[in-house]
Design a protein that fits this description.
The protein is α+β, with helices and mostly antiparallel strands. Helix content is about 45%, strand content about 25%.
């Protein structure tokens, strides 16, 4: 009997012991101490790391206000990427003022007709051209002030050859006409020339230049004269060329020279090809805008002999003689150029200088104020971020305290597991909600920046509604 009782007691004790061990095992898996020792330490560590990251971002934003060497390789490569120079804004050039001079006359400019008198535009090369090996000549401005066309002349010293390209610079659409022309810069030119001469180095000392003569009345065509010759024996011949901006093609009017040779051979029994003679493009005919007018001369070693005024269609058709006397012919003057007209009086220059000094002081003061506001905003944002991190940490600790009460009050394994799952689900929802709020804030910032850019460009920011 005693043995049976002892055996039953041992069995009951072992059953109770097995039951206690199972519940303890569960609480070892999901107890408060586990959360306290692991999750709280992890939360404290993450708070410390996030504070350090926030401080690093704050310092970096302060440094990024002005470019410094404290940047990553990717940021440096992004800043160092080549930029399109055609998009850079060029200020109006001003004369240099040496430090020992108190006053430097500031020139004034005016816009005049380019082809005046007719056929007069020529390329003037400076004395240092052969040393610099490149020079930009006088440009012509379209009748609608949309573009400027200028020749760029090159010298190849090895063979003494001179060649030329014609480039187009789109003009600014803002400001007065003189300022728009003054801002024209070769950085803004179209990369490819509209017309180029032959650049062969076979003939030593040969030169080929392109000189704009005038635009047509509608500004869609340009008359150009190409001069070919040698530095040893002068000009060999001149060609008239028409460039069409609509089709982006050019046509050399060789038929005109053939017509002049034919006329003097057939009617005057003079073989011009046995002599040196040339043409001088004068411009577009004022009565027939689709025709150009040229004058022709023969060289005799003394006074040139006039060979008549001639005209030809811009497509190289229907050449005709206008007159055999050097009378004035009517040609249109459509293009423009800018020339110096005088200097600004010293009194006005002094007044403008004082005004600029006052504006510089105001700009400097406004810059300091703006810089102070930016620094304050960065600091306030940094403090707000730190405060938010601390509040999140406190909330996590509070959640752990609530979890502790639930864990200590439960007695079954299923309850503990359900508590753990609910706690993780709440944390996941809070994390998703936080991410959604941050994404919403980022979207609002991007929208504000977009609206700001649109307003700066002068575009309406009104959004159409359903009623509209």
């Amino acid at each position: 009997m005693f043995r049976a009782t002892l055996l039953i007691g041992a069995m009951l004790f072992s059953t109770l012991s097995a039951s206690a061990v199972t519940l303890s095992d569960v609480k070892d898996k999901l107890p408060w101490n586990s959360f306290k020792n692991q999750d709280q330490k992890e939360a404290e560590y993450l708070l410390k790391i996030r504070k350090e990251e926030a401080k690093d971002r704050y310092i970096k934003k302060k440094l990024d206000r002005d470019p410094t060497g404290y940047m990553t390789v990717d940021e440096y490569e992004m800043i160092s990427m080549p930029k399109d120079k055609r998009l850079e804004e060029i200020p109006i050039p001003k004369p240099d003022k040496p430090y020992e001079m108190q006053f430097v006359p500031e020139p004034t400019y005016e816009i005049v007709r380019y082809n005046n008198p007719p056929g007069s535009p020529e390329i003037s090369l400076g004395r240092n051209f052969r040393f610099r090996r490149q020079q930009n000549a006088q440009g012509i401005i379209a009748p609608d002030y949309s573009i400027l066309v200028y020749p760029s002349v090159y010298h190849y010293p090895k063979n003494g050859v001179v060649a030329c390209d014609l480039f187009v610079i789109p003009l600014d659409t803002k400001g007065n006409l003189v300022a728009r022309i003054q801002k024209a810069n070769t950085m803004h030119r179209d990369p490819d020339p509209i017309l180029s001469t032959e650049k062969s180095l076979d003939n030593f000392g040969a030169f080929r230049t392109l000189t704009p003569v005038d635009f047509s009345a509608d500004g869609r065509k340009l008359l150009i004269k190409e001069k070919i010759g040698s530095k040893d024996d002068g000009i060999w011949q001149t060609h008239a060329i028409i460039y069409d901006f609509d089709t982006k093609t050019s046509y050399k009017l060789l038929e005109l020279r053939d017509a002049i040779v034919y006329y003097w051979t057939a009617y005057r029994d003079l073989k011009l090809n046995d002599y040196r003679w040339d043409i001088y493009p004068l411009g577009f005919d004022i009565t027939e805008p689709d025709r150009i007018v040229v004058a022709s001369y023969a060289y005799t070693g003394g006074t040139p002999i006039f060979l008549g005024n001639w005209s030809i269609d811009i497509r190289g058709e229907r050449s005709k003689l206008i007159s055999l006397t050097p009378q004035n012919v009517q040609v249109s003057m459509n293009g423009f150029k800018m020339v110096q007209s005088g200097v600004v009086p010293k009194m006005i220059t002094d007044i403008e200088q004082k005004q600029l000094e006052r504006e510089a002081k105001l700009d400097k003061k406004a810059k300091r104020k703006k810089e102070k506001e930016e620094l304050k905003k960065l600091k306030d944002d940094y403090k707000s971020e730190i405060k938010e991190l601390e509040n999140n940490y406190k909330q996590d600790i509070k959640d752990l305290e609530e979890l502790k009460e639930k864990v200590e009050g439960t007695t079954t394994e299923n309850d503990l597991i359900q508590i753990k799952e609910d706690w993780e689900e709440v944390h996941d929802l809070r994390r998703e909600l936080k991410e959604m709020k941050e994404a919403q804030k980022q979207e609002e910032r991007e929208t504000k920046n977009l609206i700001k850019k649109i307003r700066e460009q002068g575009v309406s920011t009104s959004i159409p509604t359903i009623e509209d």
